Each structure stands twice: as C-alpha cells, then as structure tokens.
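Dear colleagues,

As part of the handover before I leave the project, I'm documenting each prediction I ran so the next person doesn't have to rerun anything. This entry is a single chain, and its sequence is reproduced below.
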Amino acid sequence: MTVSKFHNAVVTGACGGLGQALARELIDGGARVALAGLQRPALDALASLAPERCAVYQPDVSDAQAMQAMAADFMDRFGVPDLVIANAGVAGGFDTAQASDLSVLRRMLEINLLGVATTFQPFLEPMRASGRPGALVGVASVAGWRGMPGNGAYCASKAGLMVYLQSLRAELRPTALSVHTVSPGYLRTALTAGNRFAMPGLLEPDEAARRLLTGVGAGTEHIVLPRRVGWLARLLGLLPARLHDHILLGQPRKPRVGEAGATEIPGIKKPR
C-alpha cells in the first residue's frame, strides 16, 4: 500500500503532534478518516479540510464501549477501514516512592497499552472478514526498548505494547492484515516540550507522519523514526548495564505530574 491507497482510515490521538500530521496526510491523500481525540476544536479544524470525508469522535481510548460505539458509527458511515492507527498516548515522569504516582502508572497503562487493544478490537473481525489488505499500526516508542530512570511508567507501557503487537502480528499472519510497530525517538510535540534532557534526532511531526505512512505502505513491520535514533539506542544497549545506567542517571528526569513542564494526563488531577 501507498498513502494514496488508504481509503478508510482511523487515527486516535488526532488532536496534535504526530496524530494530527497523520490525519492531514491521509485527508490530503483522499482518504475517509475517523478523527479521534479529546480536543474538539482541533478535531473540527482537521475535519473542515474535507467535511464529507471526516468523522469526529471524542472517546476515552481505554473505554471499550466508547471505542466500539465509535467503530460502529464510522463503519456505518464509511465502511470497514483498511488502516487503523492507534496513536493516542501520554507521557510523564514516574517515581515509585511517591504513592500519588501509582495512579499515573495505572492511567498510562490504560491509555498507552490497553488503549491500543480497545482501538483495534472492534475493527479486527470486520477487517479480517473483508478479505482485503489492511494495516493495524501501534505507535510505541524507542523508550520501550530499555527502561530509563524516572520514566518507568512510560517505558513499561511502551515495552508492553511492543510485545502485544508481536503477539497480534503472529496471530494475523494467515490473514490479509498486517501489524506495524512504530518506535519514534524524539518528535517535536507537546509530549516532549517539557523535556530537560538531550533529544538527539528531534524530528518534526509532518516528516515523521510521511515516513510512517510510507513504511506502512511498503509493508515494513518495524518502523523507527528517525532510524539514526534507533541505531544510537542499540549502540547504547551494547554497553554494560551499570555504565548504561550511569550515563542515563546523568540526564535530567522527565517532569512528573504537577512539576514544571509536565504534560497533562487525562484522568489524573494535578496535586495541589
């Protein structure tokens, strides 16, 4: 598949960053697109690019019933999708010693891991039954390759996602459906705006979206954005664990909820 061959697409986390860039690329390519996110003005602005080909939804991606209702409505209006991108995700620092951070871990797993399964589930059987080629895309992260100090919740959620996608890929080998794992490094988005540490290979969302869709269209099962960040991560992974940890411990931690630069996590209240 190429971008122009995606006719019906679903994109979660479409309000900004990579999700918004993906939605724009697909809309520009003529696809009918389900735009799912929490910020209605941003979704409406995207839908205005092609009102007759866009549907706007505001579900909590971890709510299976809400996602099933969204899927039913979209398929009733536009038919079975040939591309489903589970892009919705949240990030934030984590400290196991802080009791308040346990809710952060729970919510991050609900959105970053469970949210991918609840996104795919209502579309999977209709896509499989259609017999036509289709792609299921999960947006993970290079951070899922190895745990990083102060970022345990995010790393764990993305590592779990990668293993889940491996399982789903194996299950769907006999079908016309493909499963793609995307591992971005650092993208210039709201999720990285508060980072106080070095971000090598920082990539613009528009370029990342083009590379992602090109990779999916070419059938690439593992997509790293940009590739050089993947090479750097693998190189660091060759170091002895103590040395690797020492290097990471020298970097500033990702802000926790309530700290300056932290991004909002839906369902988590800022501490007073």
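The first helix runs from residue 17 to 28. The chain has one domain: 3-249.

All the best with the project,
I.
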